Each structure stands twice: as structure tokens, then as C-alpha cells.
Amino acid sequence: MVLVEQQTILSKDRLSIHLHDNVKKLESIYADCADIKFRYFLIGNESKAVLIYVDGMSNVEEIDNNLLTPLMRLELEKEPDIHALIENTLTVSNIKEIQTYDDVVSEVSSGNPIILIDHQSKGISAGIPKWEKRSLQEPTTETVVRGPRDGFIETLSTNIVLLRRKIRSPKLKIKSLQIGRYSQTQVVIMYIEGIADQTLIEEVQNRLNRIDIDGILESGYIEEFIKDHPYSPFPLMLDTERPDIAAASLLEGNVVILTDGTPFALIAPTTFYSLLQSPEDYYEGFIIGTLIRWLRYVFLLVALLLPSVYVAILTYHQEMIPTTLLISVAKSREQIPFPALVEALIMEVSFEALREAGIRLPKNIGSAVSIVGALVIGQAAVSAGLVSAPMVMAVAITGIASFLIPRYSASIVLRILRFPIMFLAGTLGLVGIMLALLTIIVHMCTLRSFGVPYLQPLAPIRNSELKDSIIRAPWWSFKKRPHWTDDYNKVRQPNGQQPSPLKGKE
Amino acid sequence: MKLRSIIENGLLRFFLICSVISLSGCWDRNEVNDLALITAAGFDMVSDEKIELSVLVFIPKGGGSSDQAMESGNGGASQTLVRSAEGKTVADAMAKLQEKLPRKIFWGHTDVFILDEELAKKGIAGHVDFIMRHPTLRERGQIFVSSQKAKKVLKLMPPLERDLSEVLKELSQHKLGLNITTKKLAQMLIGDSGDCALPWITILPPENKEKPKQTIAYITGTAIFKKDKMIGIIDDSVTRGVLWLRNEILLGVITIKPPKTDGYISVNVLQAQSKLVPKIQNGKWIITLKSVSASDIVQNTTKLDVSNPVVLKSLEPLLAKEIEKRIKKARNQVQEEMKADIFGFAEAFHRKYPDVWNKKKNRWNEIYPNVELKFDTKCHIRRQGLTS
Amino acid sequence: MLEQGKISPVQMALLMIPAIIATVLLLVPSITAKHAHHDLWLSPIWACGTGFFVVFLSYKLNKLFPEKTIIEYSEHALGKILGKLVGGIFLFFYFHATGIMVREYGEFVSGAALFHTPMAVIIGTMVLVCSFAVLGGLEVMGRASEIIVPVVILLYILLFILLIKDLEVKNLFPIMEKGIRPSLMGSIVPQSWYSEFILVSFLLPYVTNQKKGFKWGLIAVFIVLFLMVLTNIMALLLFGNLTSSLTYPVMVAARYISIADFLEHLESIVMAIWIAGTFIKITVFYYVLALGTAQWLKLSDYRPIVLPIGFLILLQGLWAARDLQELSHFLATSGAIYILSIQVVLPFILLLCASIRKKLGQRKGNKQNETPVNH
């Protein structure tokens, strides 16, 4: 702790007027940093100067052509002046003066080369970073049939560009801050002025400023620090790799948090329903969008409840299913040594294991694992009399149902909650399932994401927003923006945009 | 602060508590493997004091998907088992039956109840009480009265269906005979007259004499009850008349013989509605049966040209006569001979003339046999089939 | 104020509807049929007057003492000692009523599905789940009701749609065979249920718009009336004379559904409806009890006493009655008078006293013509 304080005091110091002192201090800061390069040179054969940069993070070609060449060939009449150099000599567009050691360190680590000149209390930072980065690819976790194919990458500046290209208005504001004592990760808050609520932006900023951590490697770190209900299993922020989702959220008045080093953007506030929406709902026609949404809602329940309902019916409410069905289930269960609950647990756990194994393994082996797991083991278990065929079916349907949920973070929750519900179903039957459902509903009703009730617009009911949650109404009917807080910019688009043959005749 | 965490930890704690509960035991858990699925039950009279309860238990043999195909090929010959026990009441017999069955008796899928004739003559109200009171027994279960011992009927092995309960269920769904569920029976028993009727089944003589058990029981008529005691049987053609009076007719073929020609014309009744309209006139109790039916011609062995609307029109009164004849037959047997009010005449009068009814209801037994039945039958032949 | 949250008028109505009908739906046909016979569907209609009167009463009281619940203003209306006493009576009554309700839930679940499970477990788990909602506060309850109640009502109506083919309209007749008396007699018990609308007076202070709250209170009475009549008519058309001899006619009705041999035995839907509805009902009573007790004892927060009260409710549920017969006998006889006198007569007296005090206060010529509360 003491050490940290010393370091901060030291780095807050202003640059010295003597190059010698500066270099000495910086060399001690960068001791044992083999990737930091110090290039000493003379400006116009007279003034001593040093160029500091991180090997591999700056554009060396540009350093050679636009920094070193003009400076070294300069014919000096008097002491070089920083202003004059910037104005006359250096042919780099993004350039700025720096005054403290702190600035030096942060500029260098973001890939900007620094020039320090003897007898000058200021340095120059040239914005010519360049490093190897992934090219834009289609996000693998959120694929669509129709819709843009680009996805965020690990580089913050590229991600900002992706969003800026979608929303060109100057109202798109970007606020930058650094989190992480060691990682010094750049985090950016984006919002559209006039749509996003001012208190929301302040709240996001305050919460981000409160974070004190060694390093941020993924936006998941931030999410856990700024979540409203830290113990809730439900995701209270949307994470996405897709710029179109981020842009759509910005247009609805949300705040997007981009973190350097990860392709996952955080969107706040979010509601439970937005976790169940896929961007494609909005790109394909509204009728199919509505139907697909309903399919998802139904399978949400299936994913959560099917194994528990199976257990409850088979152990408590055998009279509920038609006689013929019960008879065929009874036949297939006759040789099974386990109670239904244990059988269901075994199958569910092994299914989860298979799924996890499929994710961790390299892609080409992953598919093999799922084939071996699903077909071979399932078939063998049934014929060996370890599990019954209907149980395998129930588990398989549950698995498929959980893949229907477009957000991975939301489907994880269902996977977690499934197990306690199964236990309850095994002890109290359908009563237990109902009690578990009620608990989950109550819990979800207590949740808020940045002040917005999690189940809005169904609880509390907001009539105008129901048409984007229960159904997906046509685009021309979304006349109002979603309503996060009290004060908001209501009108999204004017009335009367419904296409009709009459319009062409006007 | 502390309370906040209570709320937020709520979910976690709840599940903790629940897992404690689940560890401590599952009180009502019954695995399917431990249940004896009873698909039908029969009640027989053994002596004046004792009844015998027989149950048809399904044997879930087989399993594995590949075996199942073979199993169904066998026609389910050995998939059921009949066990019986004696007792003073049904519940008593059930308790004794449990001693003989390794698996727990499960009533939730019992769809068919068979009473034997002797028991029916002695009174059925007590047994219906058991069926209605038991929490897992179905109110839609069907009740039959059998001429043979119920145990014998249950032991039959139907060649086509899974077991006997399936046979009887499907048969009664044709609605060629009465279709009486427990609920309907209970309603009739506490109705204004308290008389009821149940379908009457007998064993169909087996085709193959070597396998005497490979046959079914089928509905051959109706058992008529005065209060809850059986007093007689009517055959299936008379039962049709009863169905008309009870507005339960669903389908049926009526054959008429038009005058002045040889041969017959058969029509298939497709839609039929009937309604009892009571009337008290000068102290005389009259019921008018208003019925409307629509039917198609299915066979014509006469030389009549049924495509001629005039001919069709002339057939309609004949048809009405035929229907009335059936109903009259039913009325004669049931109302005049047996004096049992299974048609709901009492309810009809009660609804229309509540005041008169309340004064006279104690004398209903005397009034009933003299209630006059009038007809208002409308028959409509809609189509003549595909040939003309 | 102990409760910081606010609920909308619609949320209040959605809380009130199950608070009245949840336990009632299963019992109303058999209890009203005992006296009213064929006219059981008329009884809820005669009884609904009480519901409207009670909502009106709570609105009037709320106008006199805005932002205060009945426990708080009874002191202002009746004086310190008498007011505390009346508050105590109310709290004891709600304690008793919640216990009975919890027991009714337990009896149903153990009679219909879990025969061997100990009553304490059945009741305890429910009270526990309810306590989470109560700890969450009024806003959470309001939101939960918005999710649960529409689903419950839709499922309930679906149940009846599936039954349509088994209904016999002729069972409805003769209407008023023995005059109006039997159906009026049958309406006494429903009146005591309607009188539970006095709970509105606990919720109204926290409703965003009181005037609309009053309107929605009346709408809630209408919906309750509609559902009760619907239930009774369906039971009558399906079972006729049999209705009064069944313990849970709606449950049996659901079991009777049979569509295409597949949609059978929907009693589980009834159980789901019942559990979800009863959950809201118990939560509302539980909340009122916890909040009222905190106000009565002048605590700064009601949350610390929620779990202890829950434990007491559990015990009360276990000790409320020996068996179902005793319970329903109590509800159908002396219980009705007991419930009516506390939920209708007592608030009415309160309103009378409060208005007299206010008149007197104004006559004294005080410049502040506000309610006596602020003196």
C-alpha cells in the first residue's frame, strides 16, 4: 500500500527541465522492461533528445519518416521550442504535449512514442500506435442469418469506430477512463446525448470510478463490480459482441461500456426481456419475429422446468398423464435401478459435463465429443438399463431448449436454477415446483438494473413497451422510446409511417 | 444493511433450506416402479355380508425400445393380472388386497368399474360413495353392470385392445349404449327421483373355442335401477329409445319399410337433439318429447326414387313413426313395467313447476307411471348418399 | 413512513383480486350451495354490496387521513388508549386470519396431493416464500402480482372454456325456486370475503394516485364478483345438485375435463392457480400484519419483525383448527359474523368518529382546516 502511494506521488511529478534527470527517472521506472526502447538523437545536431516507445506497439515506419527524419534534418537557429516543433516540423496528425511522468507512462503504454528534449519541461507524444490485432470477424457466440456480420474485437479504438460508423451524429458521446492499477485498462462509456438519461450516465460513471482493482482483463470484472445485486445469479447487464446490438441499445437510451482488450461490450440498464431477444427479431419480418419470441418464451420454461416436471409427475402425480403414456413410461422404467430424481440428476449433470467438454475442446474435436456423448453414451445407457428412454428424451429437449436462449449469460442462469428446482420437485412434487417458481419470480421482481425494474415492461406494466416484449410490433409502430427513468426523450419517430398503397398516390 | 443481505441471499438460503428438507425425506414419493397400475376394478357379491374386490393390474414388462415392438406384436396377451380380495366394504377389501400385492395400489388410472348383478340388486350407493370420496379416483370413470361375475369379466384377454378397460372405454364412447360416468351416476342418485340406469355388459362368446379367454365383454343393454337397486334389464334396441329420451343419441342406423314397396330403406342418424317439455294440465302430467334429427340415406333396397324430394318428404313421417315406436317401447318397459324414472321426468317437472313439485314430490312414485308421453318428432333426410 | 415504495392503482387491484378470491375459488360453490342450492350463483351478486361499501369506506378514511394506515389513524380518531386497542384488535384479527388462510392452503395441498407430508413442512415452505416477498416490500409484491395474477386468471378462464362441452344449462333452473331467501342466506359467507377489501385501506396510502386507486378498487370488486359468479355457474352447470356435497368442486371439475383423450386431469392447473393465488393472498395479509405491527409498536422499520411474525403465522396455521371440517364449519358459521364485524363495522365506527371529530375541530374555528391528525 505504501509502495503504491510512493509510486503515484512520483509519477504525478512534472517533467524536469534537464533531459538527463528525466531519462534517469524514466529508466528507473522502466527498469527491466526489455520492450521499452530509448532512442537518443540530436535535433539539428544540437539539442539532445530521446524517443521512447514500446517495441511492437508503435508504428516504426511512421516514427522513422515523420518523427526522426524531420527532427534530425532540422536546421536549428535557436533552442528548439515544443510549440514550434509541433507546428512546423512534425508531420503527425495526432500529437500532443505532455507534462508529467504519469502522462509519459500512460502514453508509452498505449503505444504512443514520446519525445523528450533537453531544456524543455514538456514532452511530445505522437499518436501513431500500431499493433497486431484480429481482423473483424463474425461473432461466434451470436450468429444471425440476416444481419451485419461484423463483431467487436479486442482493440478499443476499432470498437469505437464500429459504433461511430453506425451512429454518426455528434450526439454520440464517448467518455474515457482508466481502471486497474497495473493493467491501466482503458474503459469507455458511450451514450447518445438527449436520449440517455443524465442521472444514468452519472451513476454509471460513479460506479466505474469506485472500482479499485489490480487489473481488468474482461468486461466480466467490471460487471461484477457494478452490479446492483451482487448475489443474484441473473445477469443485470447485457454483454454483446455485436456492434448492431450496442448501437440499437444506444438508440434506446442505454449506456454502452466498452473495455479495452475484450470484444464484449456491456450494456446498462437491461431488462430480462432484452436477454431473450435476438437482433434478428428486428431484421426479419415482425410476424416471424413475434412467433420466434414466443417460441423462445415457451422453451425458456421448458429449459427451466422440464426435468423437474418429469420427476414430479413420475414420483408424485402419476395420474396426470394419459394412461397409455404412463404405461409406456412404466415399461421403460421397469428395469431402472434409480429413483426418478437420481436418474434425472445423473443425466442432467452428465449433459452439463458434455456441454462443457464440447466448449473447452478444440472445435473439430468438440463436435466429436457431442456425437459420442449424445448418441453413443445415451444409447448405451438406455440399452444397459441405467436410464430410461423418456428421461434421455427429456434431457435432450431441455438441452435444446437452453440453446434457444440467445444470450449465453441468461442460459447459464437457467442451467443453475434447474438443479434446485429438481430437488424441490423430488420432495414436494408440483407444489415444490410452484414454490420454486414463485421464489424466482419474487427474486426477479426485487432486481433492478441501474434503477430499472428487471421485469419491466411486464412488472411494472408499461403499455407502450409491451409491443416490444410480448410481441415484436412492426417498426413503424414503435413511436416511443423505452422508458428507463422518469425523465426521458419520448418520441422515437412520428406517427403515420405505416406503408399503404394510398401513400404513393399523394 | 444486514436485512438487505437477507433479501439478496434469499434465493440461496431458500434453496439451502429446501435441500435440507429434501434430505430429511420425501413423504409422498412413489416411484412408478413401485406402483400397481389398476386399469379396471370389479365388485362382486360373495355373501350377504361380504363383497369381493377384483382389480386388473397392468404388468409393465418389456422396457427397452427394441423389445417394445415385439411386445405389442403379442397382442398384450399376458400384460395384465387379476387379483381379488374380500371385505365388508370396498375400502376394507382394498386394504386386504394390498396385502396380496407387492406394489402399492394406484387408483389414478382406473377408468372402468364393473358391478356384478347380485351386487347391483342389493344396492350400489355405498360403493359409489367410495369411488366419489377417494381422492385419486377419477370422476370420469365408467360404471358397468355385468351379468357374470366381475372377476370373470376382468380375466378376459381382449385380442385387439390393451386390456379390458380399454375395450369397455372405447365401446361406451360409441354411445350406442348408455355412457355413465361416476359423476353422472352420483348426480342421478341424488336427483329428484333417485332412479338410475347403467350399461349392461355380457361376455361375447369367443370365436376360438380353444382360447375361451380371448374375447371381450360388450354392452348389450341397460340395467335399470329403482333408487340404487337394480330391478331389471332392457335390451339394446330398447336402450336406443332410452337414449332418445335422455338426449344422448349420437349415431344409429334406422331401417324403415315404406308401404306399397318391397325392401327397406336404411338411414343413418347424424344429428339428433331431443328435449322433454313437461306440462300439467287439469291435474294430468304430460311430457312432450320434442326431437329434431337429421339423417342420410345409406341403403335403399326398394324401387323408390329417393332423389325425388316428394318421395323423401314422404319418408320423413315414416322415419318419425319408427323412432317413436322405439321410444314407446322403451317407455313401456321402463316406465310402466319397472316404474323407474331414468329419463329425468322428475327434474323436468321440478324445473318447470317448482311449486307443484314441492307439494307433490312425495307422491312422485304414484304419479310417475301415469305420466303421459307425447311426441313432437321432426325428422329431416338431408342427403341420399353418393348414388341416386 | 415505514414503506418507501409506491405502487400503481393497477398493482393495488392486482394485489386485491387474489387476496379475496384465491382461497375462495375452491370453496365458494360448496359453501354457497349449502344454503342457496340452485341459486348459488346469485349469492355472490347479493354479497358484492359489502365489497363496494368497504372500498368506499377505505377511500373516505384515506381522504381524512392521507398517507396513514388504519392502525395509525385509529389513534387519531378514537384517542390514544382506545385507538391502540382498536389497532390491536385489527392486528390480532389479521394474525388469526392469516393463520387460517395458511391452514386452508395446507389442508388443500395435503388433501389433494401430498397426503403424508407433515403439515408443518407444507405450511412452512409457503410462509417462507411469502416472507421473501414481504421482505422485498410493497413494490416487489406489486410487481410480482403483475406477473402472476394475469396468468392465474387466464388459466382459470381456460379451465372453464375446456369444460364447456360438459355443461348442462338446464341445471340452472328453476331460478329462485324458494324465493330470494336461500340465496340471501348463501350470501352471508361471501360477504365476509368481500369485507376483506378493507385491506385497501392499508394499501391506499402507498398508491400513487388515490382517486384512481378508488376506481381500481371498485374494478377489483367487479372482477372478484365476475370470477365468483363464473365459478358458481360452472359448478352448477356441471354438477347440479351434487355441488354442495363436493369439498373442492373446482378441483373435481378440472379433473373431469377430457378433450381428445389427451387433455385430461388438469387438476394440476388448479393446484398451480391455487398456490400462486394463495401466495399473493398470504403475502398481502402477512405484509399488512408486519407493517401494522411495526406501526402499532412505532418501530422504525418493519423488516426485522417479518421473520418472527412468519414463525408465529406458521404456529397459528398449525393450531388454527384440528381438521378441515372444523375449519370450514367455523368459516361458514360464526367466522362470518366475526370477520364482518371487524372488517366492516369497526372501520365504519372509525369513520363516524373521525368525521365527528373533524366537524368539531372545524367548529372550534381553527385556522388550519386540515384533519385532526395534524393538531
Key terms for this structure?
heterotrimer; B: 388 residues; alpha/beta; GMP Synthetase, Chain A, domain 3; 2 domains; nine-stranded mixed beta sheet; four-stranded mixed beta sheet; 14 helices; 13 strands; 36% helix; globular; C: 375 residues; mainly alpha; Amino acid/polyamine transporter I; two-stranded antiparallel ribbon; 15 helices; 2 strands; disordered C terminus
The biggest beta sheet of chain B reads: 9 strands, mixed
The biggest beta sheet of chain A, please?
Answer: 5 strands, antiparallel
**What is the strand arrangement across the widest sheet of chain A?**
1-2-4-5-3
What is the strand tally of chain B? Answer: 13
Low-confidence stretches of chain B: 63-77
- Tell me the total number of β-strands of chain A: 12
Proportion of β residues of chain B?
25-35%
Low-confidence segments of chain A: 1-9
Shape category of chain A: elongated
Count of spatially separate domains of chain A: 3
Kindly name the structural category of chain A. Answer: alpha+beta
Secondary-structure-derived class of chain B: alpha/beta
Helix content of chain B: 25-40%
Number of helices of chain A: 19
Structural summary, described in words:
The complex is a heterotrimer of chains A (506), B (388) and C (375). With 506 residues, chain A is an alpha+beta fold. Chain A has 19 helices and 12 strands. In chain A, the strands form 3 sheets. A 5-stranded antiparallel beta sheet of chain A has the order 1-2-4-5-3, with helices on both faces. A 5-stranded antiparallel beta sheet of chain A has the order 6-7-9-10-8, with helices on both faces. In chain A, helix 1 crosses helix 5 (101-109). Chain B folds into 2 domains: 34-60 and 77-235, no CATH class; 251-388, Nutrient germinant receptor protein C, domain 3 (GMP Synthetase, Chain A, domain 3). Chain B has helices spanning 2-8, 10-24, 65-73, 90-100, 117-122, 125-133, 150-154, 164-173, 182-189, 236-246, 309-338, 345-352, 354-360, 364-367; strands at 35-45, 51-58, 80-87, 104-106, 112-116, 142-146, 196-203, 217-226, 229-235, 252-256, 265-281, 284-300, 372-383. Chain C is 73% helix and 1% strand. Chain C is globular and about 70 Å long. The two termini of chain C are 18 Å apart. In chain C, strand 1 and strand 2 form a beta hairpin. In chain C, strands 1-2 form a two-stranded antiparallel sheet. Chains in contact: A-B, A-C, B-C. The A-C interface holds A 316-317, 319-322, 428-432, 434-435, 438-439, 441-443, 445-446, 453, 455, 458-461 and C 8, 10-11, 109, 113-114, 117, 121-122, 125-126, 129, 132-133, 136, 140-144, 146-148, 261-262, 264-265, 267-268, 271-272, 275-276, 279.
